[in-house]
Automatic annotation (TrEMBL):
Cofactor: adenosylcob(III)alamin
InterPro entries in UniProt: RdRp_reductase_class-2, RNR-II_ins_dom, RTP_Rdtase_AdoCbl-dep
Entry's Gene Ontology BP terms: DNA replication
Taxonomic classification: Bacteria, Pseudomonadati, Pseudomonadota, Gammaproteobacteria, Alteromonadales
Pfam (any one): RNR-II_ins_dom
Residue ranges constituting the B12-dependent ribonucleotide reductase insertion domain according to the UniProt record: 162-229
Protein known as: Ribonucleoside-triphosphate reductase, adenosylcobalamin-dependent
This protein's record includes keyword RNA-binding: no
Keywords: Cobalamin, Cobalt, Oxidoreductase
Record GO terms (molecular function): cobalamin binding; nucleotide binding; ribonucleoside-diphosphate reductase activity, thioredoxin disulfide as acceptor; ribonucleoside-triphosphate reductase (thioredoxin) activity
UniProt gene name: nrdJ
SUPFAM superfamilies: PFL-like glycyl radical enzymes (SSF51998)
Amino acid sequence: MNEFNRNAPSAETVFYRTYSRRKQDGTRENFSEAMTRTIDDLAAIGKYTKEEYDLVREQALSQHAFPSGRAFWVAGTDWSKKQENFSGYYNCTSTHIGDLEAFGLLVDLAMQGSGTGAVLEDNVVGQLPPVTTEITCISRVAPGAVPAGKRQEHTSAVHNLKTNATVLTVGDSRQGWRDAYQFLVDVAHTREPSKSVNLVLDFGNVRPAGEKLKGFGGTSNPVKLEEAFDKVIDLLNNAKGRRLTPVEACLLIDEAATAIVAGNIRRSAGMRQFSQSNLEAATAKLGLYSQDKEGNWRVDPKKEALRMANHTLCYHDKPCLEEVKGAVTNQFHSGEGAIQYVPEAIARANVDLLNTYSRKQTFLKAYADVSREAGETVLRAYATNDGLNLDEREFQHRMARYGLNPCGEIIGRDFHCNLAEVHLNTIDPDDHDAQESAFYAAGLQVAALLQHEFIHERYQYSREIDPIVGVSFTGLFDFLVHAGGYEWLKWMMGGRKGRRTGDLYEGMEESFLRRWREAAHRGVKSYCKKHGLRIPNRITTVQPAGTKSLLTGASSGWHPPKAQRFIRRITLGVSDPLVPTLLNKGFSVIPAQSARDDDGNLLDDIKDPRVQEVLVEIPTEVSWANIPGCDEFDLAYLPVEAQWGLYMNVQRFYTDHNTSATIELRENEIEALSELIHKSIEEGTGYISAALLARFDVDGGTFPRLPFEPIDKATYDKLVKIKEISGIDGKFLDILNEYDSESYHLESVNSCTSTVCVARAEADEREGKP
């Protein structure tokens, strides 16, 4: 029996690529085993009662409420039980970069798999000391020079008086990489400057590419480590005699991120927040990509690391309409330069003090229309009025709670966030009890990790005075189509116009959203009261939910799907045992975009030795595609007004933190969207930030081998037929375990894209065979 529903054809690929761990016998976990491992560990950390455990487990195994993706991977491992590794349990973090230690902390967080947000505003980075010392690398030792049994895990720096050189020996561990990186940052900022420090970079203890990583999992690949250290040294040397600029500080973080991603620790996930007036930051990614005369694309090597994170500009006052329009236009063309409206973020993060509409509006008006100091005065007055005696450190923490995680759905300062996610597409819109049980269980899931205590004081302090959790959902668009049917979808495609229809459907959305928010609050608050923990003042959020959404076939977060039917392409390494498994199950597998010849042309044969990554092509149909009438709409033309309307309904009636949003638009919609954003900021109706993305068809074409490719019903039916004809019977996991335990060659595996398979499918179609 398939563990995943029929509307989630990507589920097995994603689950076995991303979440399934090896068991003691060497085989992989199935979904039930992996989820039970995760829930059992959450129960142990959170000290669940039997009733809490039973509810959380039932909701997770039924795929209604999922714990975080990070928990799904690390839970139950010995590695995750060590306090120094607790950060690896969390989706995301944010850190103010106002001291040198913060740089090493972000490296440590990224190497544990946690997404890193960094506040890099001018006044924050301005707290760093000036760079005083030049670093000169006089020699180096390559990775792998020291045999496995003799390697040292810890980094050491020893000064040789005879040669007047410092030997920096990089340890073979996460801490070793972090400490070596931190040494470079610290020595460049030493308070007793010398003209130069002569450095020997010894990477000999770092295991070479291909060796297994203990504890965390995966394999070593230090291919970018030496290059990253060279670039870090160059950045620091170029700043000698002055303080780092925010963009240089950003590059210091992201050069390390390139080595971490290349080292197979995780994908890149970052957010970098800059001051609204910082022109260098606003244009940092311009010129990142360029084309030569032959049309080949190249990346500026000095800026390449900036690809590791999203950039946003922090607005502490209200931008005028022209500023908003300029920012929207810039995002349309480059994908960067989003406006984050800071006063709204700080107001939401202080909802325990700004707990009425009047209080919040008074604060927003003082902060945005007068000054930050005026807003601070208002907040202090409300604290005094409520009998709260806040010390200065907590008050300054409260005024700085606008840090964002990589996808922008969590707000706070120096935080770790644990997220849980309700998959609305798996729940009947008429079953209110089932919906509330799912959100209550998700509240219990996120609250369990509030028992963690962090080893770094800044993060533990934030946990104590401002505990952060996030109960999210995914599949909202699917849910609302099933709830409102063809008429709701028609209203959306028309831009959510019409007063009577609008009252009906906006009221329907509001009712669901308020009920879910209340259930999530009950779950978190009941848990915290029972365990004597401080109750978070904001609980709900909406994350993008890309990977986990594929486990149930949900449209991501609140967003619409790309189409009713599409080809979903998922990246795998060419040597991954999933590749022959998928070929045997009848899926098409093609070279990825990274597979190109010397002239930059895409390769077509996965057996070509130049191919290192491949794409599995999975024909997908959303759960409501065959509801009468719903197939007539082209979701690529969903107006920005409709996207904005649904997004802001979620922001107003469900979300406590922020709603992660990517609004897709065409050039002729820039003005309309600019006016909507500007109006929300002017009226204080809840906007904090949103990403904007130009439609891929804006120039009349598209790029090859994208993650999503819309297709019509006839094409979908044909591709499914090809898969059925060319695929073999048998459970997915049984086939995968065979390839896990045996040597194989791609030449021995038949591809479903063969002309024989296509011909057979076309013949069956002509003959009317199912």
